[in-house]
Amino acid sequence: MILRVPSYYKTFQCIADKCEHSCCIGWEIDIDEDSYDYYMGIEGAFGERLKEQTVTGDGEHSFVLRKNGWCPFLDQNKLCDIYSELGEEALCEVCTEYPRFVVEYGDVREKSLSVSCEEVGRIIFSDEGKMSYEDIELPDLGIEDEFYEDEEEEPFEEDMEEFCSHLEEYRTQAVAILQNREKSIDDRIREYLKFCEKLQNVVENPEEELWEPMEYFHVRMETFDELENVNEEWMEVKQRVRNFFETHSYTEALEEYKKSGDYNEIWYEHILVYFTYRYFMRAWYDGNVLAKAQFAIVGFLVIRDMDIVRYFANGKSFKLDDRIANARIFSREVEHSEETLEILEDDISFDEAFHVKHLLGQI
Question: pTM, whole model, 2 decimals?
Answer without folding.
Answer: 0.75
